[in-house]
Structures are given as structure tokens and as C-alpha cells.
């Protein structure tokens, strides 16, 4: 599902109207009907509700007038509070305002703060309030009477349904630009917008419904639409039924370089997750003093000792050993728990230019690369980097705060510059591909904000990139299932008590969920 900017949505509307002949009144009618459908699902006895529609003079208000007409036809008696004069409403919105007026729907024109002060008392009596003041094109803070209207809407005890986007939000950013409506439900047209998808504006939208207003599917295939929400149907083929003549070599042999003294858990969790996600074989290469602990964690694992420093981390000389171990392997996963010891850093920076298989680089591997990110340009095969915001800040030389605020710009810029797949972890994990596309993951929950969940994801990524012919889909599938496993685990354990091991435990259930719901039954 594509995620659009306001400019992209305007172009799509123009294309539909001017080139396809889907006239504006039809699009407005479709939008209003979809909003009504969402409202009726939540308020089936609409005739018993006290409905107020606060409408602006533009197309957002026009959608509100359509909503008023159809709720009226279903027995409600909505009141329209029009912010402006009837004569100032133009185009398709005026057409629908005229119809609502002729039907006998009460419309109050609010042309001054004094008139609003009289009308706003009605908000206290409302049980359902439809916010149709501003649409997706807002770019500056609401001020004057509009700021007061937003404040009074938020004070109302009514359930608030926003048309397209809560008034006061800019659809193109996920930081509020000024006072904004706090909606319980937002019905947006054709596709979600940026403000719907990311915190903190995501929370202000309440429940999000994406309305089908009859935009043809081919319009969303425009290569310029580079931001997309991952859907289960997109990644389901990665979990298709295996051939009867499959063997362990069919699904790849992953080499994991991870762990150090006191950090063996990182290696163990990554390896367990890799096997649980379908890897045929997994070998963990870890400092010799750590090997026994890793080997005991799961009998299905193979282990290899690495030369180590006095601190129990991989030594510089381990690079030669790892290159030998990579012979016959299908992918490398590098980084969790290895430390940033100077010798270990020397090992990582010397190793990467010689690696000839796809790689996943995480944790300490990323912190080492941050000192010399140009080493990424020496990689001979596709690589996935999995930083959290702090690690990505070090990689790109920005503050963590700026990474969070500018992630939709910084992530694809980094992926393009270094030719890597960048997985920026967190709520709505982003995957930026080297070609500029960015994918938003919908699964996961706050309970996963705990140590070890990143190690689990890295192991899953290493496993998945060996199994499918489509590298990007394999990456997206691993991230999706990682979050889904966390969602299943949180149903059982709750957010506060969730630990990374619970995610591994629920991986089989997550995969089966996708298989049974998808088009590839077992």
C-alpha cells in the first residue's frame, strides 16, 4: 500500500479527473460514502446520535456535506457548522452544500469569532462530531478562529471522526505544526499519508481507515511513489510450501560471527532465530572461550572458535579464519555482541572488502563501520544494515534527534549513497533500498523494546536472504514476521514482561499465521 504526500495525492486526483474522466463530484461522493460507512460501523443506530459536522469552505468541507446528506437519509439530523459564508464555498463543495441546504439540513454560517462562540455550545451536546475543516494540503499552523475551533473540538466529549486528516495536521510530516484535532477515527482517501503513519501525529489520528474512492490500481504503480506500507500479501510468497525433494542445502548455510565474553546471548539468540526462520544450516563463529556457552544453547547449531583478544572479543587475526569459514556458506551475519575493541574493529574493517556473500551487519558491526562508512562501498554482494536510531546517527553523522525527525530523508539517502539495504529499527521500522524506495513495516509493539530483539531480527534476516530469490522481499518478510511474532507474544505475556526469547518461541506461530491466511497453504 503506497503512502502519499499531499502533492502526490493532488496529482492523482488531477489525473483521475482530467485524463480518466472520473469527475470531481464522483470522487467527493465516493469519499463521503466511505466516511459514512465507517461511521455506521461504529454507530449503527445513527438516528439516536447528536451529529455535528464542522466544515471548512474547501473540498474537505465538501466531503463533510456529503456525509451530512447520507446520515440525514439514514435518520440522523446533523447540524453543519460552516466556517465561512455559503457564498464563499466553490466548485464541487458548493454543489454538495446546495444539495444539503435544499434537503433541509440545518447549516449555520460561522463568519466571526462571536458567531463561533454562540455555536460552539452545541459541541458539548454532540455524541458524534465530524471534523471536515482542513484537508491534507495544510502547511502552516492553524491560527485565529481556526485555532479556537480546534481547541473546542478537542474539548467536546463527542466521538470525533476526521475527514482525511485531523484538522491542523500537515499530511507531509509527522510532527504537529500547531494546534490540531485529536481524532478517534480518521478516514483518509485512496492511500495513507505520512502523518497517519508515524508518531506522534499517528496517535492524533486515532483509528485509521483507508477509503477506496475508485482510484484505479494502476495509478499506484507510478515509480515516483517510493514510500510504501508492507502488506502481508506482499511477503506471503516467501513462506510457500517447500518442494518434496528439498534438503538442508536447499535453504542455505548461514555463518554468524557474533558474541564475546559476557555477550554470548547475542550469538545464541541470532542463531536460534535463524534456524526457526528456516535456515538449512547455521554455524556460529565466536571467540574460543565463548564457544561452549553458545554450543549448549541449542544442539542444532554448529560452532567454530575464533582467535580472541585478552578481553574475549574476536581478534584481528580472526578475519582470515572467518574467510575460510565462509567457503561454502550462503550468507554472513556479523556484529551482535562482538564489542568495539580496537582489534575487533580491525578484524571487521579488514574482513568486509573480502566477503563474497550477502551480509547482514548489526550492532557492534555498525558501530565499527561508523568510523569508516566508506568500507561499505567495497562490498561485493548485497548487504543489510540494521541500526536503531542511535547507531544510524553514528553512521550518518547526525544527532539521534535529527535521525528520528528526518528519517524519511536520511534513510534513503544513506541507502543510495552506499548501495545497501538500510533497516532503521523502531516503531514502523523503515527499510530503505538502494534504488530510493522506502518500505514501512506495520507489525510490532512497544513490548519489543527490550534487549536482544535486534539480535533476533538479524538472525532472521540472515536466514531469509538465503532462502528466496527476491532479496528485498526476503528482507521485508523477516522484518514483518519478527514484528508479528512480537504481536503474538504480547497477547500471551503482555508488553511489560515480554523478552526477546518470547519472540523466538512465537516464530513458528507467526509463520503459520501467514501461511494459513495467504495463498500458499501448507
Describe the structure.
With 522 residues, this protein is of the alpha/beta class. The chain folds into two domains: 6-229, Rossmann fold (3-Layer(aba) Sandwich), CATH 3.40.50; 250-517, Ribokinase (UDP-N-acetylmuramoyl-L-alanine:D-glutamate ligase). Helices cover 41% and strands 14% of the residues. The chain has helices spanning 6-18, 24-42, 59-73, 91-102, 113-119, 145-155, 194-197, 201-204, 232-235, 264-276, 291-297, 318-325, 342-351, 364-369, 389-396, 400-405, 407-418, 453-467, 471-493, 500-505, 507-517, and strands spanning 51-55, 79-83, 106-110, 128-132, 159-163, 185-189, 207-211, 227-229, 253-257, 281-287, 302-306, 331-334, 359-361, 383-385, 421-424, 430-432, 438-440. It has a ten-stranded mixed sheet with strand order 8-17-16-15-14-13-12-9-10-11, with helices on both faces. Strands 3-2-1-4-5-6-7 form a seven-stranded parallel sheet, with helices on both faces. Strand 4 (128-132), helix 6 and strand 5 form a beta-alpha-beta unit. Helix 10 (264-276) packs parallel to helix 11 and helix 19 packs across helix 21. The protein starts with 5 loop residues before the first helix and ends in a 5-residue tail after the last helix. The mean pLDDT is 96.
Number of strands: 17
Q: Helix share of residues?
A: 40-55%
Strand content: 5-15%
- Low-confidence segments, ≥5 residues, pLDDT <50? none
Report mean pLDDT, rounded to a whole number.
96
Q: Architecture of the largest domain in CATH?
A: 3-Layer(aba) Sandwich
CA gyration radius, whole angstroms? 27 Å
* SSE class: alpha/beta
Query: Order of strands side by side in the largest beta sheet?
Result: 8-17-16-15-14-13-12-9-10-11
**The CATH H-level homologous superfamily of the largest domain:** Ribokinase
Q: Outline the biggest β-sheet.
A: 10 strands, mixed
